[in-house]
Task: inverse folding
């Protein structure tokens, strides 16, 4: 049967198991939207306020569900509005298919109305992209886009479909989607090298990144830790791979990591890095970071091996598959003196940095909300101080239950992300921690959350400043607060009311509990504004390009 | 070649935009391209790109691993210093009168270059060979006054029966 290009798009989406897409209609995708209208029972389309929100929603949807996220936008500004969202997915390795319309093939290259070379624009921030100029290639191109997005290290793929291709007809043959399968391709000798290093070392440290979650390797990671008697720390992207209260887990490492995790990693003589790329935020000064250590690097992307930190041994492949093999090859090892050293670090007074318990501050607020929330609740953040506080204080119990912008550090990620996360979690209560700076960037998406009655609790920490930049200005720029004191007069409770959701403001600790009760009782979205101090700091902090000996514990 | 120079050969999909993907990767990761040549292979679906680049082992390894990730790159290899035929073609125009051409024809013969165009006020020469030979020829011609010079960039093929193949 001959069907249109637009009809083909929808059929391939259904083939690929897509039931939720995010997007924004426009002239160059009218045909696709007409098909979405006809197939609204199979595909739920969420219209956001801005394409950026749709891209972040699709990104978060993918992170929580493990499926490929899909976003649709029209040509020109619709497509360029996706750019930050696509870059965010690229830096955090999220599987995403972005479908854009374009002007008809005959109008391409003529600066036609709403024409942009979006494949050119997104080339550096996609795993691959396509422009389809032959309708008979459309179905297979879309299938390939899904396959590329999923395969190996996941990432975003963009498919640009000119308007005339959407309108052209050709035969359509359904196909089964390609699911990647992984097997071990490392040789015995590679494992032998790793085993030798692990046996010879005295202070091993397992460092888990986002790849652990992508691969679903949490159990194997713990099995490794048990077998070789090693602690686990994680990058921010690796948070949730191990339960917060697991005795092997020391917490997040890096610039704002947990003291115990940072110190233990610094003292280790062997780092077993699992699905991580040693970002500069995680390592600080790379030369000092690696001094006196060897690294075993396990990753599915060979280009990450020795890119940022030289690896002594590398094991390439899906980390779950590799870890299974590695655990098999290893003898059980006990390390009493390392365990004792770790206990001493954990019990050191510096490990117990606390904000005051009797005031409203980021720690008391996050802990109180955490206590009220179900352990399975998905937690999203924007970017800045609040993000780090959540990473430090929230007790994560569910793999993939923390959705945050890691590599790109996208302020404005949160609102879109919370909607995508909520839908991926079957519309369950979802938490978004944000701040006045980040929230102001994409708060328009409150309207979308209201339209769909998504039960998102927006916890907005208001310090009337760009807190993280202010913290750097305090520490490194002689307290010259250039353009970070916002002085805005936004009344967020009234704003919430105007958008059609309930909200309340909390400015002291006694007000917190009742406000949290109110927020959790709300059916739809709820805005909880918390007034916090401009000079609350994210601590500890290792200054950029610094080392563990530069750690700032108090200001 | 300098010790840190190397030549990459790759087979890529013969589609529009592929060259941009390859060269864009070099630009955004901060790798230098010294020369680049590209053309279709015996299989019209594939083009072959030859890039000469320079850098230490770290850069060499990163270039290979990053190129391998490009969807359109089917295979990429560093050509070994021994066992590779390297060639470049150079066209050189000299706008000089007959009377000033003494020594020129001798150089053409010695370097085994070719005269491809010959008029009253200009001579255009072609030379093919390894880069060092082409460089030497260009240096020899410099005093004559080079009006125009075009180099194709290196292309490379293995000696013997070995070919660049992908699974």
Result:
């Amino acid at each position: 049967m001959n069907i249109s290009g637009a009809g083909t798009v929808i059929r391939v989406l259904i083939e690929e198991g897509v039931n939720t897409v995010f997007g924004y209609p426009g002239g160059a995708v009218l045909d696709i939207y007409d098909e979405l209208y006809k197939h609204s029972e199979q595909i739920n389309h969420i219209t956001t306020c801005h394409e950026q929100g749709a891209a972040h929603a699709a990104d978060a949807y993918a992170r929580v569900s493990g499926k490929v996220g899909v976003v649709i936008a029209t040509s020109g500004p619709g497509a360029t509005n996706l750019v930050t969202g696509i870059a965010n997915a690229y830096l955090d390795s999220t599987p995403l298919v972005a479908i854009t319309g374009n002007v008809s093939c005959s109008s391409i290259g003529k600066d036609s109305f709403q024409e942009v070379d979006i494949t050119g624009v997104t080339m550096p921030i996609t795993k691959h992209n396509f422009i389809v100029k032959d309708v008979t290639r459309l179905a297979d191109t879309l299938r390939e886009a899904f396959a590329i997005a999923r395969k190996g290290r996941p990432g975003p793929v963009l498919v640009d479909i000119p308007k005339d291709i959407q309108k052209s007809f050709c035969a359509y043959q359904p196909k089964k989607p390609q699911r990647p399968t992984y097997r071990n391709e490392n040789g015995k000798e590679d494992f032998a090298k790793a085993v030798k290093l692990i046996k010879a070392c005295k202070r091993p440290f397992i460092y888990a990144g986002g790849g652990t979650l992508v691969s679903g390797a949490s159990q194997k990671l713990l099995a490794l830790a048990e077998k070789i008697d090693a602690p686990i720390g994680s990058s921010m992207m690796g948070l949730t791979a191990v339960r917060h209260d697991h005795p092997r887990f020391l917490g997040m490492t890096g610039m704002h990591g947990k003291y115990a995790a940072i110190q233990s990693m610094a003292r280790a003589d062997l780092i077993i890095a699992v699905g991580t790329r040693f970002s500069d935020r995680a390592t600080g000064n790379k030369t000092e970071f690696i001094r006196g250590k060897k690294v075993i690097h396990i990753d599915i992307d060979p280009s990450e091996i020795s890119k940022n930190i030289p690896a002594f041994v590398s094991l390439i492949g899906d980390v779950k598959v590799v870890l299974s093999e590695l655990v098999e090859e290893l003898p059980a090892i006990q390390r009493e003196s390392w365990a004792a050293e770790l206990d001493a670090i954990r019990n050191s007074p510096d490990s117990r940095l606390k904000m005051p318990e009797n005031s409203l501050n980021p720690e008391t607020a996050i802990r109180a909300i955490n206590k009220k929330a179900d352990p399975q609740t998905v937690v999203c953040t924007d970017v800045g101080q609040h993000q780090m506080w959540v990473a430090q204080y929230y007790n994560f119990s569910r793999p993939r239950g923390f959705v945050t912008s890691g590599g790109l550090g996208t302020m404005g990620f949160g609102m879109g992300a919370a909607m995508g996360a909520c839908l991926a979690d079957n519309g369950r209560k979802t938490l978004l921690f944000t701040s006045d700076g980040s929230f102001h960037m994409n708060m328009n998406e409150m309207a979308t959350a209201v339209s769909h009655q998504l039960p998102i609790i927006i916890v907005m920490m208001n310090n009337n400043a760009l807190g993280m930049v202010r913290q750097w200005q305090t520490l490194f720029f002689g307290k010259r607060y250039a353009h970070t004191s916002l002085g805005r007069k936004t009344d967020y409770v009234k704003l919430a009311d105007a958008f059609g959701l309930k909200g309340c403001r909390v400015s002291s600790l006694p007000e917190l509990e009742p406000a949290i009760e109110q927020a959790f009782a709300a059916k739809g979205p709820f805005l909880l504004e918390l007034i916090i101090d401009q000079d609350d700091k994210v601590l500890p902090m290792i200054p950029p390009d610094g080392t563990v000996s530069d750690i700032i514990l108090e200001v | 070649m300098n010790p840190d120079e190397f030549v990459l050969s790759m087979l890529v999909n013969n589609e529009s935009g592929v060259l941009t993907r390859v060269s864009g990767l070099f630009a955004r990761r901060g790798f230098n391209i010294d020369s680049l040549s590209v053309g279709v292979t015996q299989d019209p679906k594939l083009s072959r790109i030859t890039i000469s680049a320079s850098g230490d082992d770290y850069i060499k390894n990163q270039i290979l691993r990053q190129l391998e990730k490009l969807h359109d790159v089917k295979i990429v290899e560093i050509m070994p210093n021994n066992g590779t035929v390297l060639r470049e073609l150079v066209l050189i125009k000299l706008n000089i009168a007959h009377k000033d051409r003494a020594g020129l024809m001798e150089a053409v013969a010695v370097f085994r270059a070719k005269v491809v165009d010959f008029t009253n006020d200009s001579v255009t020469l072609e030379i093919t060979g390894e880069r060092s030979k082409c460089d030497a020829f260009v240096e020899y011609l410099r005093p004559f006054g080079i009006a125009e010079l075009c180099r194709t960039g290196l292309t490379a093929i293995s000696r013997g029966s070995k070919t660049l193949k992908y699974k």
In short: Chain B touches chain A at residues 17, 20-21, 24, 28, 58, 61-62, 65-66, 68-72 (CB under 8 Å). Residues 75 and 164 of chain B are 8 Å apart (CA to CA).
